[in-house]
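Long-time lurker, finally posting.

We've been working with Retrotransposon Copia-like N-terminal domain-containing protein (Gossypium klotzschianum) and I want a structural starting point before designing mutants. I don't trust myself to interpret raw outputs, so I'm hoping someone here can both generate the C-alpha cells and explain anything notable. Sequence follows.
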Amino acid sequence: MACSATDGVVDNRLFSTKKISVLLDDNTYLLWRQQVLLALKAYKLHGFLDEQQVPPTQFISDGDGGLRANPEFERFEQQDSALASWLLSSISQTILPHLIGMDTSAKIWNAIVTLYGSKTTSKLMFYRRSLHSQRKGDMSMKEFLIKVKSCCDNLASCGEVISEHEHVTAILNGLPSEYESVISIVTASQVPYTVQGVTSMLLDTECNTPYPFPSPE
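Top reply, 14 upvotes:
Generated this for you. Predicted structure of Retrotransposon Copia-like N-terminal domain-containing protein:
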C-alpha cells in the first residue's frame, strides 16, 4: 500500500523545533524511543518509520504519453528527509557512526531498533534479577537500601519503572531473620507501606529504636 505524502505532512519548520530531551546512547534507548514515538504520533508521521510502506511513485503520466515528476513523491521525500535529519539530531555522536549510509527515516529507525532491541531486553533481565537477588548480609542498612534503590534506578533508566510494592518487596526479601518482626508488620498492614515508610522503619530498627513501629501513613 502506498504511503500518502499528504497524510501527516506538516510544516517542516514547526517540526524541526520539536526537540527530544534525551539523546540516544547506550543507556537511554527506551526513554528515547518513547519520546520519539509520541512526537511522531502527535504529528501523524509514525508511518514513515515503517519500511513496508511504499512511497508514491516518482513519476506520473503527463496526459500526453510522457512522464512528469509526481508532486506527491516530492512532498513525501521532503518530509522523510526532514524526519531523518531530526532523528539523527537526537542521537549521540558515539552512535552516529553506526548509521552512516542510512538515507531514510525508516532505515535509521530500524537500524537503531536492531542495534538496541536485544541489548535492552538483556539489560532489563539482568537488572531485574539483580533487584530481587539483593541481600543485606554484612552491609549496613543504609548501604543495603541504597543498593536496592540503585537496581530500581537502573531499571527506570531502561524504561522499566518499578512500583512501590515491588520496591518494598525487594527490600523485605533481602532482610535477614532478625528483621522478621519488621517484615511481619509491613506485610500484615492493611494500608500498604511506602518505600519511604519502610526505609525509616528499618533505619530506626538498626539504631535500636523501641517498638511500636509507626503506622504506614
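Before you design anything, note these points.
The chain has two domains: 14-57+68-116, 134-208.
Residues 1-6 have pLDDT under 50 and may be disordered.
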